[in-house]
Amino acid sequence: MSLVPSYRPPVTDLPEPEPGPERVSPHIDEAAAFTDRWVRRTGLIQSFSAQRRFRRARCVDLAARVAPQATCPRLQRTAAWIVWFHALDDRCRHPRGEEYAFGFGTLPDFLPTDGGPTPPARTALQRALADVWRMTAPAMSPAWRERFAARFRELADRRPWDGLAAGSALDLVEYVCGCELPPSARELASFRSVSGAATSVLSRDGTEPEAEEFRNALREALRDALHGFAAEAARAGFPPAALSAVSAYAHALTLWADGLLAWALRGGPAGADAPEPGGHRPLLLAEDVTGVPVDLLRPRRPAPPPVPSTSGGAGTALHRGRE
Predict the structure, then answer these.
(1) DSSP code string of 191-223
(2) The whole model's pTM is what?
(3) How far is CA 292 from CA 74, 121, 156, 285, 317, in A?
């Protein structure tokens, strides 16, 4: 697999943050249909009321905004990751007893970097994590898989898991744009600035009553860091393929940050009909992701069988990571 694209727009072509047509993936409907099946198949959704709460959380809308350029299969898997992080966040917001009674400490074990087997899943969170990893990991290099799993484990040790979604998003951006940064680019000092600026943006879930000026300041800081990253890569004499990868990553990360902030301005998880701008209504799926054994977490009605799709649906090939 090639880790860099043959051509990507130069970093000077970063999407402009000024008001204009909203960037939303044309594959949003396919992603919504996929996630509806996926949450029932993995056990994250157990009732019609939970299904309604899940749809109100607007996870697919968020995915379609942060990854508007992704192919249909990659958007579907990105949406699944976002759903999983929302479910984890919801579970942490509504704790019941000791965290480890629900298997939180074992979650990193469900990211085998060699494609090997995972421990038996005993909760819906574990089963869904193993499933989305099986769909994602085969498309990426061994180095990416090792990095993602290491970051996941490092952040998971910082209970109550603050920053896990933001830290993982930095790696998922590479999955979305279909290329990976070369190791030499990650060693640049400017890349650390990019990581810090991006984390400041991505760690905000859209529920804080922040001024729009503050959001714009965060976005501009990220754009400045990305321009500095591209400039240092050029001065370092990187070959054209590596510079193309830097440009692709900068473009995709800008889209992700802009999409997250646009989603937040439209009400975040509560949607445009929130009683207050940015008002937060929790996902409230805690009843569906408890530590009850998996056998008791099966959907109340059978999930539909995989449906072949020419646009990258949830068929068997998708589940095995092929595109």
Answers:
(1) HHHHHHHHHHHHT--S-S---HHHHHHHHHHHH
(2) 0.81
(3) 31, 11, 21, 14, 30
